[in-house]
Amino acid sequence: MPDLRRVLRDSYGVRAAELHRIPAGTNTVNYRVVDEDGRRWFAKVYRGNLERERAAIELTEFVRRGRVPVPEVRRTLAGDLIDEAVPMSLWEFVEGETAEGGLTGPRWPAVGTVVGRLHRRLSEHPAATPTLRPAVEARDVVRSERNFDRLIASLRARASLSPFEEWACEAAQERRALLGRAGEILEGLPDLTVQVLHGDLASPNLMLRDDTVAAVIDFHPGRPNFTAWEIARIGCDPRTVILGDQWIDGLGELLLAYRDEHPAARVQDLTSTVAVGCAYTLGSTFPLAEPPPVGPSLEHYARARHQAALVMLERLPEVQEELHDRLGPRRG
C-alpha cells in the first residue's frame, strides 16, 4: 500500500502530523488523521469494489445537499471522490459515539427527525421513484427455510461444537420453527413503500453527540428497499430492544418525529415497522452462520438479535395496536 502520508500530501493537500489506525470497519481500513493545522480527518482505505464505494459516496453527497447530517467528503486535488492509487477517500472527522449502546430518552425523537429527513430526501433520488410492493417481498421465507436447513445440517455434521455453535444450532432450530409465523405476519400487511434507502442504517452507522444525531455514516449504494425495514433497522435495533420495554414507547416517539419531518410518509409503512423488522430478523441466519471463530462482540450481537426477534414476536400485537393509536389519521 502506498505511503498514506505522501498520498494525503500529494493527492489531498493535507499534511499529516498524526496518523492513527481505528479498529473498526469490515470492508475498509480506517485511520484518524490530524493535519499540521490541528484539523482532524477520517481516511478510509478500501478493500472492495471501487464502483460500489464511489456510488455510496455519491449517495452521501446527494443526501447532504438535503440537509441530512452526514460527513463531508474531501475530494482530491484533481476533483475525484476516491484516490484510486491507494485506493482511499478522505472525510471530515465526526465527533461522537455510535448508537450501539441503544436509544433512550430524547435520542428517540432526534433519530426519528433525521431518519425522516433522510427518507424524504432519498424519495427524490432519480434512481427510483417510490412505489408500493407486497410486504411478503421484505423477506423470502422459502429461501430462509433453505438457509436455516443448510445451517442446521452443517452444525450437526461437525465433529465437535464450541459453546457458541451449540447455542447457535439451538437458536437456528427455534427460528426455523417460527418461519411460518414470519410469513403469516408479512401476508397480513398491506402493500408497503419501496424506495432508495441508506442500505445499512444500523446502530454502528449512526453517530450521536449527547442527545442529537451528529452524523449518518457508511451509506451503501442507492438501492430500493422497504422503508419500514430500514426504520426497523434502527428503531428495533437488538441493542435497544434488549434494554427493556422502553423501546415500545421510544419507537412511537421516533415515528411521530419521523412523520413530522416527512409528512408524505404513509402511516401504513410506519405502523408496519415492527412487523417487518420481526419477520425479517426471524428469517435471517446472520450471524448464526458466521464461520468460526466468532469473537465476543459478534457473539453478543448474535444473542441479542435472537432475543430481540423473539421479544418483537411476543409483543407484536400489543405494539401494533399502540402504533395504530399513536399514528392514526391526524385530526385537524
Description:
Its EC number is 2.7.1.39. It holds the Pfam family APH. Keywords: Kinase, Transferase. GO terms for molecular function: homoserine kinase activity. This is Homoserine kinase type II. This protein has 332 residues and is α+β, with helices and mostly antiparallel strands. The protein folds into two domains: 4-93, Phosphorylase Kinase, domain 1 (2-Layer Sandwich), CATH 3.30.200; 99-327, Alpha-Beta Complex (Aminoglycoside 3'-phosphotransferase, Chain: A, domain 2), CATH 3.90.1200. The protein contains twelve helices and eleven strands. Strands 1-2-3-5-4 form a five-stranded antiparallel beta sheet. Strands 6-9-10 form a three-stranded antiparallel beta sheet, with helices on one face. Strands 7-8-11 form a three-stranded antiparallel beta sheet. Strand 9 (206-209) and strand 10 form a beta hairpin. Helix 3 (107-122) crosses helix 9 (246-261), helix 7 (227-235) packs across helix 11 and helix 11 packs antiparallel against helix 12 (296-327). The model has no long low-confidence stretch (mean pLDDT 96).
Side by side, the strands of the main sheet go 1-2-3-5-4
Proportion of residues in β-strands? 15-25%
Termini separation: 62 Å
Major sheet summary line:
5 strands, antiparallel
**Shape, per Cα inertia axes:** globular
Structural class: alpha+beta
CATH H level, superfamily name of the largest domain:
Aminoglycoside phosphotransferase (APH), C-terminal lobe
GO molecular function: homoserine kinase activity
Protein name: Homoserine kinase type II
EC number: 2.7.1.39
InterPro entries: Aminoglycoside_PTrfase, Kinase-like_dom_sf
